[in-house]
Design a protein that fits this description.
The protein is of the alpha+beta class and 399 residues long. It has three domains: 111 residues, Gcn5-related N-acetyltransferase (GNAT) (Aminopeptidase, 3-Layer(aba) Sandwich); 157 residues, Aminopeptidase, CATH 3.40.630.30; 89 residues, SCP2 sterol-binding domain (Nonspecific Lipid-transfer Protein, Chain A). The chain is built from ten helices and 17 strands. The strands form two sheets. It has a twelve-stranded mixed β-sheet with strand order 1-2-3-4-5-12-6-11-10-9-8-7, with helices on both faces. A hairpin with an 8-residue loop joins strand 13 and strand 14. It starts with a strand and ends in a 12-residue tail after the last helix. Bound molecules: acetyl coenzyme *A (ACO). The site of acetyl coenzyme *A (ACO) has 23 residues, from strand 4 and helix 3. GO terms for molecular function: aminoglycoside N-acetyltransferase activity. Keywords: Acyltransferase, Transferase. It comes from Amycolatopsis umgeniensis. Belongs to the acetyltransferase Eis family. This is Putative acetyltransferase.
Length: 399
Amino acid sequence: MSDFSVRLLRPDEDRAATDVFRRALHAREMTDEEWSAISPSMQPDRGFGAFDPELIGTVRSFDSEVTLPGGGITPLAAVSLVGVRADRIRRGVLTGLMRAQFEDFAARDVPAAMLHASEGAIYGRFGYGIAARGKSIEIDRHRARFRQEVPAGGQISLLDLESTIEQWPSLFDALPRTRPGMIARSPHLWPGYEREVRRATTPVTTAVHRGADGVDGYVTYTVERAKFDAPSLLKVQSFHYAGPDAFAGLWRYLLSVDLVDRITAEKRPLDEPVELLFADPRRVTVQKTQDEGWLRLVDVARMLGARTYRSEPVVIEVTDRFLDHNSGRYRLSEDGAVRTTGPADLAMDADTLSMLYLGGWRASDLAVAGRVRATGELALERADLLFGTRVNPWCGTFF
Ligand SMILES: CC(=O)SCCNC(=O)CCNC(=O)[C@H](O)C(C)(C)COP(=O)(O)OP(=O)(O)OC[C@H]1O[C@@H](n2cnc3c(N)ncnc32)[C@H](O)[C@@H]1OP(=O)(O)O
């Protein structure tokens, strides 16, 4: 551990901290113009810096809330802008920043945190686990034909770049966040999205779907084509909808766009049945699956009590090496969660509990990987049912 101290950043230090993060990701420092566009995204009192005495590392968060299995909603810290100066890595700087951030979450009564990781080996030690996964898909547009029974969808209207930027927040906020893991978008997130789409080199279009009850979905996309007669690619940038009509209607629209050969969409929910819209499901290929949201239960007792459970009771023993007060046994049942001293059916570390929590993994699969230790098959069977959710978890928001 080297000699450094961690404290909240002052507003006049936010730009330097953002540059520390950007340099850590091998991106150049921002120009004055870029900083003035992005500075409204800095939520006050949510950035931490490590100093030795120079600024050598940083973490940030944005206030949000997350949908839980059962439909409950709880406050969430959306963690981002994590970086340590390359000449100060592997000396415990991130560990110190994480500790300060968790203490801050606890002081503000924020029971959970989520992040998108640059690398898969960084955050498990801090109790974050892969709670949601996504799939990246590609569609062969010329050969994909809709099945007859797929809903026809409603009306589509198009927004250009400026109207997209103006209407994005209200479009997103009006849609239900039904999947476990979906988060509210803080006003501090939109300046970053605006910056991204303004940097696009081809036109940004949003197709808004209107069903019987009004606007119920939208998709934002760009179309890329290297030259006039080259194959072209429609890239879905974001896609949100309230139900099957909007889902089908928006996909029907995307498949109807002229001069497009392939369509790609990244990090979609694992169980989203895009391929089942088509007569030949093989016209949709999964390019890869990857972690889509890392969750940390900062207050395990509160979070276990905030979601619902199905099936017979199970006692779990949690070992939390980073936030020891969470370690202990919890009895989970349809009636809720309580601390207990009774014998445990399953044992796991805090990061593995995060993986189970939103229903993204089955306890029996985590046992196969050695992450869950169980008294027997019956305990695993019960845990599979107990944590199981009707739909797969998905965050759906990048930050
Ligand atoms: C949410 C986001 O913003 S994701 C973006 C994260 N940022 C980046 O990827 C930028 C580039 N990387 C960095 O800035 C830094 O390497 C960080 C932030 C990932 C890690 O910072 P460090 O100060 O080096 O971490 P720290 O010294 O506290 O490491 C703690 C432990 O994690 C391990 N660790 C840290 N980074 C990594 C990594 N990238 N891969 C594997 N292990 C890692 C360390 O080896 C150490 O292990 P030990 O306790 O067994 O010795």
